[in-house]
Amino acid sequence: MLARQRQARIVDEVRRRGGVRVSDLTSLLDVSDMTVRRDLEELDRRGLVHKVHGGAVLATNSAEEPGFEAKSVRERPEKSALAVAAAGLVGPGQALAISAGTTTSALATALASIPDITVVTNSVRVAEAFTGTAGPARQTVVLTGGVRTPSDALVGPLADATIRSLHVDVLFLGVHGMDPVAGLTTPNLAEAETNRTFLGHAKKVIVVADHTKWRTVGLCTFGSLSAADVLVTDDGLDADARAALAETVGELIVAPVDGPDGQTPR
Asked: pTM here?
């Protein structure tokens, strides 16, 4: 297979799956690890994919907002690992806010077994994760209402007013990107404002973001990295990024990813 043919196949796989690992591509294309990495570097240079530690994801513009379904197939093992680690920080009786996103939706499923929690969310998907499971009773879910974005977040004046009327113990915040200069970002202006409102009404902020979010920059900044009291990420994040984040956030938690099905040690 010629280099251009191989690279075209890689782009097709990234578009179909949302992201690929180097190890997957070496098996698929029957080439060496070094060949795949050279191909990814070339595709990154041409703006066709975004090279990340251990693989590549779809290249996006700062204002491009993928839909929920498109994002839900990306980094599934990482999101499962983050969900288990973040859920371990919650105990009965707490009032939580959970922002919209595919990672926070995975977290909501992991939280369904914890009794006596109150959840405020601007995500129908998060709310459904509680009502659609056989979790314990005594869980209260407050859905903010608002205008729905392509990523299934509820935003706008109604959402913001609901959040401003409440005060929660912990905010779990998903992000489109995190960058040492740009901070926490999203491609949606209205969602940025709703996230800022969340940040102003929580005692503790826990950001949940897999390694592919590092140095991804959306259109609008809604908070600095230092706004995170805790950042939960996965072990795909490289050492330099870990060091930079450890100096900026209150606490860095790195969740191990234990395999393709996303099962992690408990």
From this structure: 0.74
